[in-house]
Amino acid sequence: MKAVVCEAWGAPDTLRVADLPLPVPGPGQVRVRVHVAAVNFPDALMVAGKYQFRPDFPFAPGAEFSGTVTAIGEGVAAPNVGDKVVGSAAFGAYAEEVVAEAGHVIVLPDDTDDAELELAGSFLLTYGTSWHALKDRAEARPGETLLVLGAGGGVGLAAVELGKRMGLHVIAAAASEAKRQAALSRGADETVDYTAEDFRERLKALTGGRGVDIVYDPVGGDIAESALRSVGWRGRYLVVGFAAGGIPKLPANLLLLKGSALVGVFWGDFVRREPEANAANTRQLLAWLREGALRPLISRRYPLSQAPAALEALLGREAVGKLVIVPQQPD
């Protein structure tokens, strides 16, 4: 089968398309013909050798996908061959076929069409992370104010959309007009350009001096301290990721002075440690997706040969919404 292959740790441009043996599902596993594979920040970290898990070479990156089951391993009662599924794997989704644990894939309705299958394949990590963050970690309540940093990216737009669904007042912070417009299209109440205006003064004006109740931060870097200083009494600062590259060192006295909390969000380990809670979250999200209540934004589709360009766009923070790899798409 064709796959995007990583043969040494490095930048995305070290990847190439090559033939790998068709993977055989082991006990408790399934093999899926990939319809789309989502492009996510951990994929780039894994290629660089900076992720907490390092596969043996050669391997295909990619942890999130949708497609059709083509084979099942010993002991698998469900899904069945021919089922349309969405799921996650440790790696391997940037390929024509991927093997995953049967417990990490979810069967979609039989009448799921290709467009819905594509949306589902771009959905789990971003919306799963954001729903876990806002519902489980922040325990967000209707009427609270949510500040979303990096609001034009995949997890940021998901947080905007879910925040509005939870009855929050959403302020979307993004560096480009296209990203701010994308956030508005998903329900943001206001937007902030934190590169071109006094960020803290703007937030103070938007909140009547009270500060925000929740900060959703997948970005890190230099903007983090300003955002933390804009948190109000009993606010919660959600540490989701570090897309800007820098891990901020935040002054602990700010937490004390405002009775606020710094809260870590690690969706991947939540999936592993609390599978039943994650399954309930996922069922709710997929039901909303099916109803059309959630609208993931896929801005670009890439064939396997252009996977390095997709990862570069993600690392350069050029992407609006989600990017996906389409293994069946011609070059």
From TrEMBL:
Pfam families noted in UniProt: ADH_N (PF08240), ADH_zinc_N (PF00107)
The Enoyl reductase (ER) domain sits at 10-325
Any GO MF annotation of the entry = oxidoreductase activity
Where on the tree of life does the source sit, at the highest rank? Bacteria
SMART domains found in the cross-reference section: PKS_ER
Q: What is the designated name of this protein? A: NADPH:quinone oxidoreductase family protein
